Amino acid sequence: xxxxxxxxxxxxxxxxxxxxxxxxxxxxxxxxxxxxxxxxxxxxxxxxxxxxxxxxxxxxxxxxxxxxxxxxxxxxxxxxxxxxxxxxxxxxxxxxxxxxxxxxxxxxxxxxxxxxxxxxxxxxxxxxxxxxxxxxxxxxxxxxxxxxxxxxxxxxxxxxxxxxxxxxxxxxxxxxxxxxxxxxxxxxxxxxxxxxxxxxxxxxxxxxxxxxxxxxxxxxxxxxxxxxxxxxxxxxxxxxxxxxxxxxxxxxxxxxxxxxxxxxxxxxxxxxxxxxxxxxxxxxxxxxxxxxxxxxxxxxxxxxxxxxxxxxxxxxxxxxxxxxxxxxxxxxxxxxxxxxxxxxxxxxxxxxxxxxxxxxxxxxxxxxxxxxxxxxxxxxxxxxxxxxxxxxxxxxxxxxxxxxxxxxxxxxxxxxxxxxxxxxxxxxxxxxxxxxxxxxxxxxxxxxxxxxxxxxxxxxxxxxxxxxxxxxxxxxxxxxxxxxxxxxxxxxxxxxxxxxxxxxxxxxxxxxxxxxxxxxxxxxxxxxxxxxxxxxxxxxxxxxxxxxxxxxxxxxxxxxxxxxxxxxxxxxxxxxxxxxxxxxxxxxxxxxxxxxxxxxxxxxxxxxxxxxxxxxxxxxxxxxxxxxxxxxxxxxxxxxxxxxxxxxxxxxxxxxxxxxxxxxxxxxxxxxxxxxxxxxxxxxxxxxxxxxxxxxxxxxxxxxxxxxxxxxxxxxxxxxxxxxxxxxxxxxxxxxxxxxxxxxxxxxxxxxxxxxxxxxxxxxxxxxxxxxxxxxxxxxxxxxxxxxxxxxxxxxxxxxxxxxxxxxxxxxxxxxxxxxxxxxxxxxxxxxxxxxxxxxxxxxxxxxxxxxxxxxxxxxxxxxxxxxxxxxxxxxxxxxxxxxxxxxxxxxxxxxxxxxxxxxxxxxxxxxxxxxxxxxxxxxxxxxxxxxxxxxxxxxxxxxxxxxxxxxxxxxxxxxxxxxxxxxxxxxxxxxxxxxxxxxxxxxxxxxxxxxxxxxxxxxxxxxxxxxxxxxxxxxxxxxxxxxxxxxxxxxxxxxxxxxxxxxxxxxxxxxxxxxxxxxxxxxxxxxxxxxxxxxxxxxxxxxxxxxxxxxxxxxxxxxxxxxxxxxxxxxxxxxxxxxxxxxxxxxxxxxxxxxxxxxxxxxxxxxxxxxxxxxxxxxxxxxxxxxxxxxxxxxxxxxxxxxxxxxxxxxxxxxxxxxxxxxxxxxxxxxxxxxxxxxxxxxxxxxxxxxxxxxxxxxxxxxxxxxxxxxxxxxxxxxxxxxxxxxxxxxxxxxxxxxxxxxxxxxxxxxxxxxxxxxxxxxxxxxxxxxxxxxxxxxxxxxxxxxxxxxxxxxxxxxxxxxxxxxxxxxxxxxxxxxxxxxxxxxxxxxxxxxxxxxxxxxxxxxxxxxxxxxxxxxxxxxxxxxxxxxxxxxxxxxxxxxxxxxxxxxxxxxxxxxxxxxxxxxxxxxxxxxxxxxxxxxxxxxxxxxxxxxxxxxxxxxxxxxxxxxxxxxx
Length: 1501
What we know:
14 helices; 13-stranded antiparallel β-sheet; alpha+beta
């Protein structure tokens, strides 16, 4: 106790000491605080005194100034009075002396000197203080500037430390794993040593046994050798007979395919076609579009090579004709071969008879066995002889009929080909002469007007004749393509088609004007879809009047252009009337005329001005910009107008639409408002909506004489938007700089610089290749993506802006720099800001050429494609490309193709937005939608429900939404619904909403609905306040789900701006929205579902969103499919993997379930008379159904299937079943083209264009009729069993593409079951749910009751989607979904909703597998995601019943989702190891697999 007391006293003393020290510290702090206050007060006092002194000095200066003014006034008065009063000199001298004395006295007065001294001192002190403050401020600025650098360096060091820590942890794991492996290896070694000893003992025992066995077998071996000699002699005879049989079979095969020589010639000709197509491709590189006529003329090389190609085709056709004539001679030699083999067979028969006679004399058992072999050989020989005789008989009967007919057909086809090529050659012969004249003029061109005029005249003639010959050439190519289905010929023809389309694209970028003389006209070929002109039309062009023309002075009113229907209804036009430029448009009713009276035409300058006309809905607008050649000033004029009637859409018919510029042909009748004489002067087209267009991409020209009327030169730098040297890429062209080291050398520091401006998400910026080595800089989802491989041992290196530091696709210029330092470090810099860097093996850059903005298709689709994020060309503007700080003029590079000069602003606007069901965009502006308002927009969707537009003022809401296919306007509780309910058909529709104090109006595609506006006092509302509105959805909790589809060309009235189309790029909020491209526009990409007899099974979710047309069979498309590639490479910004794995374009994968299939409802009317189907396939499967169609009773049917690896075409002819079977097996995993035809009396199976199998049948009086649906890849359960063997009834396992029925492509299915795109690359176990949407319904043995445990693994490719859903008829449900990476389980147990969620620290969408488990026990639900756990306890339902209801995996039909479930889109990604209550679930045994779901196969990451 005493010790404790002592300790207590000691602690008390220490506490008291600490308290004293604390008090001392407090006192010192108080003292310091007082001193600080005193110093502060002194400083304030000093400042106050300084200010007072400064004020006094200011007052003193003012007083001195006043005194000086008074003295000057006195002096002036003195002079005045001296003059007026005529004072004598003495008086003046006296007055001056007195004044001087007064000044001296004033000057020496003490107060003035003291004040001056004090003022000087205070001034010096103030200057010193100011200098100290400036020094302090300079040090502060220096410190502040260093802070950001220090912070950035600290963050970089922190990242490096984190990486080092992670690497150390990984190394530690490797060490632990290595130790474990070493332990296992030591144990294995010990076991194997013991086993080795046992084996040694056993070997010794076996050796002893073998020695005794060898001794015992010596006798039988001797007997066996003698027996073998006898068998050898007999086998020799058998081998000779068998060899003769093989030789005969080969001859028979040659006999049945006696026209193979012709096929080989055709293949050789196809190789020539491909070679010529490649030459045409390279010659296209010479076409330049920098706006100078002499540069555009280089396109002549293209036409020269087309002429040479036609000549080569003519020679090949003549060669084919000669080959056909030789086929008859070859057939004559077949008889000789048959006679020879017949004699050979008789000789073999005699030898076999002698052998049998010898065998009869022997009684030995071995000889008897040999006799049996001989008897078998004799039987086979007799069968062979009878088969040979049948073949001879068949040949003798078939030769005069079938062979002669096929020879005659071949002769007719080749003669027709010769005739066609001669026609085209005659049309292109003058082109060759123009080309030579053209080249000569260019070589001698020295800026002389004669050579200039001659070159332009030649250009006009060549382009005109090329335009005339294009349709003929395309028609001939189409006919040849139909007659020659071989792969190589078809691909060559398709390549030529693409090159012609590319040539037209180049022609549309020729920035050269045309001179019109009053009788001239050009019919332009606009490459835009007329559907895009319906609600919004924008066009710009350059114009220059020929004012000195006497015709213009006599008749100044002139026609300029017309774009519209041939019947002069629904059009836009431009004219000069009454000295005014007039914009005229008609939307089906009365004309709207907008005269620009602010700038009469007579006051226009004698050089080019630019005109822009625009129409959005019923509102029209015209702009005129007049530049100044002497300065940068521009005059701008604008005039507006609108339709007073109900029309708001420009309804153009594609087949009846014409676009005339400068005039019209004599047989065309213009509407009265435009019926004027032709234009006199020069015109140059610029843009149509977002596309660059040119007069040189024409269909026809009328009275254009470039010799007498050459084009006018235009100063490209006269307009503001053109002064910066930039280049426009439309996604199809590219620039190629060859031998870049001519401007700079690869060195220790290698640098590339370029500036880009684009609104698009994806695009190729730079590409260099050298064999398997490459360097690619791309834009992916708006951010930079750099990947390269210079032959590294570790493979390609990825440098990606994973931190999202620099977004590129904001329609602003960004300066991108790539720096390669010391051949081992790659650095990415954007806008002079370091983004990221990565190290690699020390290797120099092995390249000489660089592609900019894109590359040829053969490069993008080569082996390098697997390393590219996408193969999409860049769309936007580029400038300032430099290598090693050396500039390149891209238009002057010989390899440049399909780019133009300038940067059109219209092409950089984001007038279109795509929403995925989780996205929206928003803006805050001065609007008031409940007073006076009008707005409209286009929309396109395949989903029946979704929120299109949302706006609120307090409790009042104005929304536009889709409800079961109808459009609904909800304005403060007043609902207006469209009369139609089919607006979810995938087509473009236009909505106009109008709010007035009297009525609410909703117009959809010019169909108006309205209701009276209920009286409501809004006087207290502020009309100029800023409000927020949303497109595509809302973050607020609303009754409607967010929209899935496209919204474009939106406009509405605002208080601070005129009516104009909305630029979504300028909106402040953009959530998961793509502002470029619209996947809904690409029908072949989607697997569509449509409501039918089994709509509950077939109905898809929001992702089945592409191209549902009434006519399910469309014409095959041509050209490049950039949009498909863009959609194919979509990526969720939160996900590591792309949304769609790399897949073969327009190919679909079947299998996984027994009834995987596509169903098509449309069967052509002429199908019963002639059924021709073509398809491409690849498979490793030996059995499976490819195609099936029948009537309801399956009496009439037609099928193509695989059996034992062979293709079998089967159909009925009355009660007879016709079966055509291939001899070869085609389950080799390679692509094969198959055509199968059921004609009136013959069936054909053509494989790869080389093997033609035919089977005739008798004509039957009964008509052959089948009914829908048409099955591809498999059949519905229970189908085809009546006619096809059971192994081949099940689904085909493989890929199918290029489906054509009677020559027309099949693009979209009515129903789809377990079909996905045909993915390329490796795969692994799992079930893949594609972005096209789909789901799996488990069989009845699995259900989710009141108590269960579900465990599975996922690897998502999208951050949101439904994982699992179960529901009951009484409204109870269980739903598990992801939303922005968060996993949520939501339940309703009949009492209310309750839920629990888990969010991982790392991303759930990181490209790795994640384990998810959900455990339910009545009202308690636990959710596990990897190592994160959460749970919820809901209300207890005492009346709960354990239902057995269907369980949906990966998605659910829209009709089964309640409004409280905001996540409605399907899961995208892979699921594996699915278990319910510890029992594995096999998806291949599911009750239903609907949509794009691949069972048991998942694309590897």
